[in-house]
Amino acid sequence: MQIEKDVYGEESMESLGGAVSLALKAGAVVYLEGDLGMGKTTLVRGMLRGLGHLGPVKSPTYTIVEPYELSGLEAFHFDLYRVSDAEELEFIGIRDYFSDGALCLIEWAEMGRGILPEADLIVSLSLIRQGRHVVIEGVTEKGLAAINTLQNVITS
Fold first, then answer.
1. Of 44, 57, 61, 84, which has the fewest Cβ atoms less than 10 A away?
2. Do 75 and 102 meet the contact criterion of CB atoms below 8 Å apart?
3. What are the backbone angles phi and psi of residue 92, rounded to the nearest 5°?
């Protein structure tokens, strides 16, 4: 099951992220797919702000992961763009981040194939004329429940 939406501009992408945050639960794993510059980090910024984070949100391209302490929830924003071998993730103890109390938002998840857990939601961003086309797909039972919640919040 999936939802599709066309988004125009950074503010609209953040707003979409805020809407998506309403459906995210602790223990969820979200893959963010799309080429460089598609707005993955902007979408994450909207999600984190929707969950109550007030500070800056930067891409963890060089640090691989940025942690966020939110009220009653830990969130981890991963950017695996610079990972050349999925085994590198074992050295940073990546499996320790995936707990029932954590929300994990992962850019470039394909770089961690074989190490990362299955995604609950996959958010794919692609270029359209003057904007982005966003597809949000529920993969697991938790992801399908999120899609059901989102259908009440997001209109195509």
1. 84
2. yes
3. -95, 0
Residue length of the chain? 156
Report the Cα 45 to chain-centroid distance in Å: 9
The token pair that represents 63 in the structure block: 């640090």
Q: What is the 3-state secondary structure (H, E, C) of 66-109?
A: EEEEECCEEEEEEECCCCCCCCHHHHCCHHHHCCCCEEEEEECH
pLDDT in tens, 140-149: 999 999 999 9
Question: Which CATH fold topology does 2-155 show?
Answer: Rossmann fold (3.40.50)
The structure's pTM equals 0.92
Provide the token pair at 49.
Answer: 């702000």
**What gap in Å lies between CA 11 and CA 46, rounded to an integer?**
9
